[in-house]
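EI: anyone free to look at a 134-residue chain?
SC: sure, send it
EI:
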Amino acid sequence: MIPGVLCALAGVLMPPGQAAAAGDAAECRLRPTEQHIDWTGRRYTGDLLCEVEPGHIRLQSRSTSPVIGTMLYSPAWFVCWKQGSSYPGTDLWYLTQGDQVVATPAAKAWGYMPATSVKAPEHPFPGLAKCPWT
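SC: here you go
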């Protein structure tokens, strides 16, 4: 493997919960062939893998929506983005599946994380699909 490539991927290859070594830049990348199926059976092709601040996953893209999951580990993946209610610093939300179910077990921790928790260089991340619903 090319040394520079190994260094760039170090944050992605580390076990969950372990911090990247000093000097490793957090980066986001699109993975166009990754497959996901949400709790309703909807299929998604492609995602964004990005460093995140651990936090809550909400059932809807609103700050008042019930917390149904928790994101415990970084990096995390996201299948699409949408606009929702204002959240400190943004009104953009990313759809994902949390690491831990908190409520509504049938939803399997699928929900929305505010863009401010996603360590992307810009929001929405270029090339990530907009969720097809409003």
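EI: The chain has a mean pLDDT of 85.
SC: 👍
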